[in-house]
C-alpha cells in the first residue's frame, strides 16, 4: 500500500512509522497508510514555517486570494471523491461527507475575498499634528490542532483565515482521520504556495501536538478537541506567552415548550442529538421538555428513532453511520451503563447492531426520567445518546439549560415570540437556535461558545481576524 507522506517545506517526506486508516463502517477496509510524524519532523516543519513567514506576510492580498480561491474551486470540483473518502474514514454518511467538503470549499472561497477586506483605521490624535494609524498584521507561525469529527471543515476554517491574513501554518490533523487532511494539503501543494507556508505533520498528539505546544517558534495555537486536552494547550501556551484559541466540548440543551409545533420540535431534536452519530460538539444531548407535551414528545421521538436507518456510511439511504472507532464506541456504551445505574430509563436504543459489514454500529439511545444532576446530563458523551429532562415551566427550563459547565450551543422549540426572544438573550451559550437543531451553522458567521466550551476569539467569518492577526498602533509626526 502506498504511504501517504507528511508535507514539510514544500516536499513530501516519508517516515519510519505509518498507521493504517480503518473504515469504521467496514473494518476490513483500509482507507490508506499514513506517515506518523516524529519530533524531528515536527521541528523541521516549524523551522520551515518560521523561515517562510516574513516573505509570506509581505505577499499581496491578491496573491493569497488566488491560492485560496484555487483551493476552494478544486474542492468543489472533487466534492464527490473527497466526500467519499471522508465518509470512509470518519463514518458519517456519504451525503454528509460531500456536504462537508462543499463547506470546506466555501470557507476557502470566503477567505479568498477576506484577504482583500482586512481593514485598518486612521484616528485623529489628541495631540495636534500627530496622525494615528491602527492596522492588523499576521502573527507568524500558527499551529493548527484539529479533531476527528469534521476532518476537512474544521481544518478549512482554521487554515483558510490563517493563510488569508499572512500567517504560515503547521497543521496536525487528528490521528484517527488523516485522509481528508492529506487530500486538502495535496491540493494546496499545487496552487503555487511558497515552500514552508503550509506544513502537514500527521501523527500522535503526544508527539506532534506536544512539540507544537512547546516550541518557542510557534506564535499561536488554534485547537479544537476535548476539554482535558484544551486545558493542557492553555497551560503550555500561557507558560511561554503564545496566543491560543480553544474550541472544546458541549452539553447543549434543547428546550421544548408546550406551545411548540411538535413535529418541528421532534425533527430538530432528532437531527441535533443523533445525526452524524451524535459526534458533534453542538449536538443537543439534553432535551428539556415541558410536562404538558412531554409524553407526546417522547412517543414521537421514539417513533422517529425507530425509523432511522443505521448502516454503512456509503450505503444509499443510510441516515446514521457507525461510531468512529472502538474507543469511542466503548465510551458511548459506558455512559449508557452509567445512565442505567443512575436510575434513568433507557426508553429506546443503545444496542450494538450487526450489518452486512463489520463495523462500530450503535442504535441511537434515548433516556427518560432523568434529572440535570446525573452524569449523563453533566458530561459530554459525544455519541448518539440523549436524555429527556421533564420541567414544569419556561423558567425552570431556562435554569436547567444554563446549569452546565459548558456554553456552546442551545435551542428552543416554541411558537411564542416572547419566549424565543427572552431565550435568545438569557441563554448562557455562544450560539442560540430557535425552532432549529442545535447543530448546523453557517460558514460566514462567528462560531464559538462560553464557559468550558470555548476560549479566545471566535472562529469563522470576519471575526476570525481577531485571532489570526495582531493589532499595531502607529503614531506619526509628519515633520
Could you describe the 3D structure shown?
The protein is of the alpha/beta class and 479 residues long. It folds into two domains: 3-248 and 453-476, Aldehyde Dehydrogenase, Chain A, domain 1 (3-Layer(aba) Sandwich), CATH 3.40.605; 253-434, Aldehyde Dehydrogenase, Chain A, domain 2 (3-Layer(aba) Sandwich), CATH 3.40.309.10. Helices cover 39% and strands 23% of the residues. The chain contains 15 helices and 23 strands. It has helices spanning 39-57, 61-77, 79-90, 94-114, 153-164, 179-188, 205-214, 227-240, 262-274, 291-307, 326-341, 375-378, 394-402, 417-426, 465-468; strands spanning 3-4, 6-8, 11-13, 18-23, 26-35, 121-124, 131-138, 141-145, 168-172, 198-200, 220-224, 243-247, 253-256, 286-290, 345-348, 365-370, 385-391, 406-407, 409-413, 431-434, 450-451, 454-455, 469-476. The strands form six sheets. The protein has a seven-stranded mixed sheet, sandwiched between helices. The longest helix is centred in the N-terminal third of the chain and has 21 residues, at 94-114. The protein is globular.
Largest sheet features: 7 strands, mixed
Overall number of strands: 23
CATH secondary-structure class of the largest domain: Alpha Beta
CATH-derived architecture of the largest domain: 3-Layer(aba) Sandwich
Strand line-up in the sheet with most strands: 15-16-17-14-13-19-20
Instruction: Note the overall shape.
Output: globular
The total of helices stands at 15
Radius of gyration: 23 Å
> pLDDT below 50 for ≥5 consecutive residues: which ranges?
none
CATH superfamily of the largest domain: Aldehyde Dehydrogenase, Chain A, domain 1
N-end to C-end Cα span: 68 Å
Helix fraction? 25-40%
Structural class based on helices, strands and sheet pairing = alpha/beta
Mean pLDDT: 97
